[in-house]
Design brief:
It is a single chain. By secondary structure, the chain is an alpha+beta fold. It folds into three domains: about 1-85, Orthogonal Bundle (Helix Hairpins), CATH 1.10.287.110; about 120-145 and about 210-260, Urease metallochaperone UreE, N-terminal domain (HSP40/DNAj peptide-binding domain); about 265-374, Urease metallochaperone UreE, N-terminal domain (HSP40/DNAj peptide-binding domain, Sandwich), CATH 2.60.260.20. About 25% of the residues lie in helices and about 25% in strands. The chain contains ten helices and 15 strands. It has helices at about 5-10, 20-35, 40-60, 60-70, 95-100, 110-115, 130-135, 280-285, 345-355, 365-374; strands at about 120-130, 135-150, 165, 175-180, 185-190, 200, 215-225, 235, 255-260, 265-270, 270-280, 285-295, 295-300, 310-315, 330-335. Strands 10-11-15-14 form a four-stranded mixed sheet. A hairpin with a 2-residue loop joins strand 10 and strand 11 (about 270-280). Helix 2 runs antiparallel to helix 3. The protein is elongated, with a radius of gyration of 33 Å.
Length: about 375
């Protein structure tokens, strides 16, 4: 994993970045490299995946702590950081060595071989529109899942047959060997190579799963996307991932939500922002203008003398949070549009208008030159 780029570098951040810094950097980069904004661009698609992977780790406090301590090795099952105990001592079971010294009973290897194994989580990506994120929706997802074979019910043996006890380990799943050392006779226990630690042998394998007991299937699910969900958020569907083994619980299905950009609105948390163009006359004289909201257009009165860049706040016109406890605002920035392609008559009228204006009509312009003279 040495060639993998540092997650902080992927997001353009330093390791001292705060949670807000991480979230802000992710929003900007996800929007920049979003597939809908870069159709057919494989490089942008790869960048988008890297940004999502980095954010998935750095936005989770537990994963971030592990990453800060061990780097990418924290998530590499072969690195030795993932498990406890004495990793790195290949060929020896440290539990069995200590058992031989202190008279401990039982076989740790046997316990591990037959212990319940948690099923793996499965991640899928769902792309939804801005409106679907705001109001919620249902989406069908299709994914590959590992589960027990329906023909043999997980035994791996063909119909009408059953697994037999392994003759080499007598069904224990382990074999014990002794070795003479300077400390005396050392005893170690390892998984039986004939049955791979299961304690069972299958003479007639199931044809559907080739004796494995598990098969990969394609599963479809209708997923409810809650109203108010944001880009980059995830939904966990419990026990819908890969099925566990030896009685272990199934993993989860993790829905990674991507929201397409909106042509008018931009979102920040539960607040939304937009720009509305107005004419020079509307800005100067005041007017009732149409403002787009999530529930349709509304009439809004702007005062005379409104300047370009003025922001008006429409309370409770933003997005309702996922838990329904709060609702954001809509912030509207008005932009005065300068008219183009004027006729000579229109130009003459503007010149007359300009000639009739006094200094008091342009407070900002006069204030600028007053500061300049000082």
């Amino acid at each position: 994993m040495a060639d993998k780029q540092d997650y902080y570098e992927t997001l353009g951040l330093s390791k001292s970045a705060s949670a807000d810094d991480i979230k802000k950097a992710y929003r900007n980069l996800a929007k920049k490299y979003h597939p809908d904004m870069n159709p057919g661009d494989k490089e942008a698609e790869q960048k988008f995946k890297e940004v999502n992977e980095a954010y998935g780790v750095l936005s989770d406090p537990d994963k971030k702590a592990k990453y800060d301590q061990y780097g990418h090795a924290a998530f590499d099952p072969n690195s030795g950081f993932g498990g406890g105990g004495f990793s790195g001592f290949e060929g020896f079971d440290m539990g069995d060595i200590f058992s031989s010294f202190f008279g401990g009973g039982g076989s740790r290897s046997s316990q591990r071989a037959n212990a319940p194994i948690h099923g793996d989580d499965i991640g899928v990506r769902v792309i939804i529109s801005f409106e679907e994120a705001v109001f919620g929706c249902k989406k069908e997802v299709s994914y590959a899942r590992i589960q027990k074979c329906d023909d043999c019910h997980g035994s791996g043996a063909a119909k009408g047959t059953s697994p037999e006890k392994c003759s080499r380990c007598s069904g224990t799943g382990t074999i014990t060997t002794q070795q003479r050392t300077m400390f005396g006779v050392m005893q170690s226990t390892s998984a039986c190579p004939d049955c791979h630690g299961t304690g069972k042998k299958i003479k007639t394998p199931c044809k559907n799963c080739n004796g494995k007991g598990y098969v990969k299937i394609t599963k479809k699910l209708d997923v409810t996307i809650p109203a108010g969900i944001d880009d980059g958020q995830r939904i966990a569907l419990r026990s819908q991932g890969d099925e566990g083994r030896n009685g272990g619980v199934a993993g989860d299905l993790i829905i990674n939500v991507s929201v397409r950009p909106h042509p008018v609105f931009e979102r920040d948390g539960n607040d939304i922002y937009c720009e509305v163009p107005i004419t020079f006359a509307e800005a100067a004289l005041g007017a009732t203008i149409k403002i787009p909201t999530l529930d349709g257009t509304v009439d809004y009165d702007i005062p005379e003398g409104t300047q370009t860049g003025t922001v008006f706040t429409l309370k409770q016109k933003g997005i309702t949070s996922v838990n329904g406890r709060s609702k954001g605002n809509l912030y509207v920035t008005v932009v005065v549009e300068t008219p183009k392609n004027l006729t000579e008559e229109q130009k003459d009228l503007l010149r007359k208008f300009e000639g009739g204006c006094k200094d008091k009509n342009f407070s900002k312009k006069n204030g600028f030159f007053s500061r300049f003279k000082k």
